[in-house]
Each structure stands twice: as C-alpha cells, then as structure tokens.
Amino acid sequence: MASIYEKYGLKQVINASGRMTILGVSTPAADVVETVQYGLNHYFEIKDLVDKTGAYIAGLLGCEDAVVVSCASAGIAQSVAAVIVKDDDWLLDNLHAAPLEVPHDIVVPKGHNVNYGAPVGTMVALGGGRLVEAGYANECSAAQLSAAVTPQTAAILYIKSHHCVQKSHLSVEQAAAMARQHGVPLIVDAAAEEDLQRYYQNGADLVIYSGAKAIEGPTSGLVMGRGQYVAWVKRQSQGIGRAMKVGKEGILGLTHAIENYLRQPKVTGAEMVEKMTPFIEKLNGLDGISARVVWDAAGRDIARAEIHFDEAKIGLTTSEVVQRLKTGETAIYFRGYKANEGIVEADVRSVSPAQLNTIYVAIRALLSGENKA
Fold it and tell me: Are 200 and 54 in contact (CB under 8 A)?
C-alpha cells in the first residue's frame, strides 16, 4: 500500500523550525490519537461536552473555567467578540452592525502588533474589535499602556511570543494591574508558551494557547480563565464562533493531551543541548560555517542550534541556502527570522539524530557545489 506521501506526491519534510503551523505543528502521542478516534466514532451533546471538558480542564489548571476552540487565532477572535458582546443577545446576532458607541477598542502594546503567520489586527477585527496601539515599537511601559485606555476600550491584549519586541516592554503582571485599574479585562495570547498556569496566576482574565504546539494535541486551541469571560467566549459558538468551530474529536483529543502534558516530564533545554552537540560540532568542521547553542528569545527552556553562514566564503546568501534546502528532495525547514543577518536556527525538538545528520549532509553538499546548479 502506498504511503500518504506517495499517494499524493507529497514531499518528505524535516522540521527544524519548531512547532510551526505551515508544517503541521506537532505529532500527538498515540493515546491522544486514540482519543481523537474515539471522539470521531461517537455522538455527544456538544454543549454538554464543551461544558464538562472545560470544567475538567479548569480543574487540572486551577482556573475558573476553560473552553476548547479550533485554534489559538480563533481564540483571539472569539475572546475579542466575547468582551464586546458580553450578554447582549442583539449584539451576539449583529456584531457586524454594532453601533460605534459600543466599546470595541482593543489596546495592545505597539511592539506586540505582529504577524505570527497572520496579523494580530486581523484576528481582532474578526472579533469586531479595533486595534489601538500603546507605546512604541521599542518600548511600552505601564503608564504608556494606561494612557491608551479610554471609555471605548473593551480589553487590553498582551501577546506573549518570541515574535514580539522583548526589550522595554511591561510584564503580564503590570498589564493585569493596569487592566484592573481601568476596569477592563486582560486577554493574553500565549499560543506557543509552555506554562499553562502562569499568566492566569499573573492576573489575566483570558489566556489563549495553541493546542497543537507545546501541548502536542490535535489542531485546536484553549481559552482558559475567569468564569464570566469564558462563558462569554462559549456564547460565541452562536456568533462568529460558528465559522471556526472545533469538532468533538478535537475537544476530547486536546483534553487528553493536556492531561499528558501536565503529567509527563518535559524535555529540558539541557537535553536539547545534548542532542544537538554532535550536530553543532560537525557543522563547525565545515568551511564558512560557525554554529553554537542559543536559548529561546522569549525565555522558554528551549535551546536551539544557531548556524552562521559566511556568505562571502560560501558564495551564497543565507536566504539562498534556506530556499535551496527547502526545495531539495527532502524539504528542510529552519527558523529563518535572522537570515538577513546570515543566521538561521535549528529547533531540534521535532528532529531525530538521524535527521540532524541528514541536515548536515545536505548543508555539506550545498557548500561543496553539488546542489548549486
């Protein structure tokens, strides 16, 4: 029997870029897959399933309530709609025609207004909000955030991500204090973050996670937090949430994946270093390349291999190297955010030692001219 790759003519992929949506994010454990299969093959009262799995997850995480959604982006859109619509039945049906006097501004630090694969502002707009930037691209203090809040503010949005500016920006705790001072909720998008309790404990009212990234569940998202706000998010299943609903299998699969995630030991950064050390040593034996261990810019316990290309010596730009490795017989993907500086990063969490050797062989072949045609 032909493999899926053979059946559809798909390319094999080595994912050294991390848990990225463009590559399918992650590979759930066998028992999560079994739970997904069980969900696919049984019927449930969906509201009952949503409420009881949400309460179960909330018990695991120590928050008031939770709800599984289709992805973290959907979580942003539905959270924004929730804080605008609240309990208003007319607005639930007519968010698209909401009067201008309905508070709908969503204040975000300017350095958090990023494109993570889609713009933050697009998700805010999907939820009926208007993005208002606070501070500057290189700084946002608590006072600057506070100054952007007006009677038209529906919520403060904080993006916790390596995509965001890290320097001179206020913390989640400071943002929560400002939100409480102004009587508005704080929404934290923590899509790829690994701590499922920290930001709620820091004072956020709603916290959004990707179900398929650190948690390694099926394609899904999680919104957890204060009971009233989660209840308003759930109401959006009758509003904009209808267009982004999650299936019964996703709800059950993510709930099981969260249990696994909390119970099982995490792979540490030190273990990642041990895994990548032989790879780095081999790369440093190639002329025109220097490699070293670097740590996650957003402060997570994630170590990566930083690879620096001497473009003058190798006769290729780093962007050309990245592109040629993507378009080889096996598509090899790196984190290419610093390609303009001659640097890429290899995230080894989803890469086997054999695949690391394949990457090394591909780079060596490229530098030797075998693939320069």
Answer: no
